[in-house]
Specification:
Strands 7-6-5-4-8-9 form a 6-stranded mixed beta sheet. It contains 17 helices and 19 strands. The chain is globular and about 75 Å long. Helix 7 packs across helix 8, helix 7 crosses helix 16 and helix 9 packs antiparallel against helix 10. The longest helix has 24 residues. It is of the alpha+beta class. 34% of the residues lie in helices and 15% in strands.
């Protein structure tokens, strides 16, 4: 009898397949394995490490049930991400508390539905079902939450909340503790949670990897069907349908399917114009898996063949991305990585004659590449597509993810690289997930109404060379990068470059062969398009 073979695991099942050789026959048995729980308590302890206090209560309300104004229709539910980080629960009208001294994580849930509510909406998740989702210390009815918090206040314990507007109001209590005004701290928790969230746990990395796998399949289905598509809307539809069919029903952000000059609008979202006569599509789209984001951008020729100008720009952006990803490692300074992207862009644009009348140093210090690459190189990613970090939601130390003037980002980085302390910068650390998304765009408004009117930049831009590049629109390439102990791992497996072109053209060839056969037996055009989704 042969020795047993190792278990085979399948991410889509809750079973292990075990093959055993017995009496010259193969016996296959199913061994159930425990479903992986959301690491709620691990995340709470990570927050505590950054909060650095010995006692008190963390209180976070989830998203409540809400309705549109003058309507009986519920507003689309999106769970508060800080609440989700400590619970893994995607249900409305809940709350969570963490007793710091006792290491006790309690989730507070609404009472069970009854009567006609059950007929219309079914039952709420039970305590048993919630127990199977995450590792809570206890699960209690939310009607008892006010009493629980008031006891902490009576004992003089601090209540840590994210924002002042999340402070409990205790509408059913006549006697409110006299020391209520001093009971709440709304300034320190968010910083501690941001610092915890930026370093991903193994569960979170696995979820983001899964989101990327589904996103990859959606991008591939777009490439396979591209030869059939007539409108940007069809690209959006196929991408979305693929994700939904894989149980990823929410996108991490609005799908961007910009063709031609629409690709030069960074957050283009109309997705409703004809593809005919246009060179490229810039598809920026990524789904969520269990609230964890993916963020992937690919740019490809609609015909399956590059024009000379489009290939020139694509190659520059590909080099920008390759060099920047290679710099991603623990201790890496994202400011320096960002500026490396501009150095590569300057070199490439100068070679094409799009910028001229200066030296590489002059181009660099003037920031002429901003006219073609006007955005940041990337951002953190996690429960938000633009996720939180120690110094803000982006990788540039921006408060709340925003700078007062995004156009000044280039020179802000130069100044901070030259003179500021690294305490204002987020150096890369193992467990961070970031995006690297360089791009070059030919936005007529930006070039003609902004940068060509700025003499410090305009003197270096070759206006006569722009016209033939306007139809290119824009090229962006974006991958999701996990910082590891010794470097990085690219979590994005979506084909790009020659690999993407191969898919487009293989499916185009298959279509041409099929159409020739169908024409020979006079099959209707409408019949040919059946199955275009895949």
């Amino acid at each position: 009898m042969g020795s047993p073979k190792p278990a085979e695991t399948d991410a889509h099942t809750d079973f292990d397949l075990v093959n055993e050789a017995e009496h010259d026959a193969v016996v296959v048995t199913l061994k159930s394995r425990p479903k992986e729980k959301y690491p709620a308590k691990l995340h709470a302890r990570k927050v505590l490490q950054n909060l650095n206090v010995a006692s008190g209560l963390i209180y976070l309300p989830g998203t409540p049930s809400l309705y549109y104004e003058d309507s009986d229709q519920e507003i689309f539910f999106r769970q508060r991400r800080y609440f989700y980080y400590l619970t893994g629960l995607n249900f409305p009208d809940c709350a969570v508390t963490y007793d710091i001294k006792r290491d006790k994580l309690i989730v507070w849930i609404p009472p069970q539905n009854t009567g006609r509510t059950v007929i219309y909406n079914g039952f709420n998740p039970t305590k048993e079902e919630i127990t199977a989702i995450a590792d809570f210390s206890d699960i209690k009815d939310i009607s008892d939450l006010d009493d629980y918090i008031i006891k902490f206040i009576d004992y003089g314990r601090k209540i840590y909340i994210l924002h002042k507007n999340q402070q409990p109001t205790f509408p059913n209590h006549q006697f409110i503790p006299p020391n209520m005004d001093n009971a709440y701290d709304s300034s320190t928790l968010i910083k501690a949670m941001d610092a915890a969230r930026v370093i991903k746990s193994p569960y979170e990395i696995k979820a983001i990897r899964k989101a990327n796998a589904i996103t990859m399949q959606a991008h591939v289905n777009v490439l396979r069907g591209l030869h059939n598509f007539e409108n940007e809307a069809e690209i959006e539809a196929v991408f979305l349908a693929t994700c939904i069919s894989e149980q990823a029903k929410q996108q991490a952000y609005g799908i961007i399917a910009g063709s031609g000059e629409n690709a030069s609008t960074l957050h283009y979202g109309a997705n409703n114009e004809q593809l005919n006569g246009r060179q490229l599509v810039c598809l920026d789209a990524g789904c969520e898996w269990k609230n964890y984001a993916s963020d992937v951008t690919r740019t490809f020729p609609i015909s399956g063949k590059w024009t000379k100008e489009a290939k020139e720009i694509y190659d520059i952006v590909a080099e920008m991305q390759d060099e920047c990803i290679a710099m991603c490692k623990p201790g890496g300074n994202y400011f320096a990585i960002h500026m490396r992207a501009h150095e590569v862009a300057i070199k490439g644009l100068s070679k094409l004659g799009l910028i001229h009348n200066g030296t590489m140093i002059e181009y660099y210090w003037a920031g002429v590449s901003r006219a073609f690459f006007p955005h940041g190189l990337g951002h953190y990613m996690g429960l938000e597509v633009h996720d939180v970090g120690k110094h803000g939601a982006l990788l540039y130390g921006a408060e709340n993810g925003r700078r007062s003037d995004a156009s000044k980002l280039y020179h802000d980085i130069l100044r901070e690289m030259l003179g500021s302390s690294e305490e204002t910068q987020d150096l890369l650390e193992p467990g961070m997930i970031i995006t690297v998304e360089p791009g070059i765009y030919f936005n007529k408004y930006a070039l003609e109404e902004v940068y060509l009117k700025d003499q410090a930049i305009a003197k270096f831009i070759n206006k006569d060379a722009l016209a033939k590049y306007y139809p290119v629109g824009g090229v962006r390439i974006e991958d999701d990068i996990l910082i590891t102990e010794d470097g990085y791992e690219n979590l994005t497996t979506t084909p790009k470059g020659d690999e993407a072109l191969k898919i487009i053209n293989e499916w185009k060839e298959n279509k041409d062969e099929k159409e020739a056969l169908e024409d020979s037996v006079q099959i209707e055009v409408a019949e040919r398009k059946r199955g275009w989704l895949w």
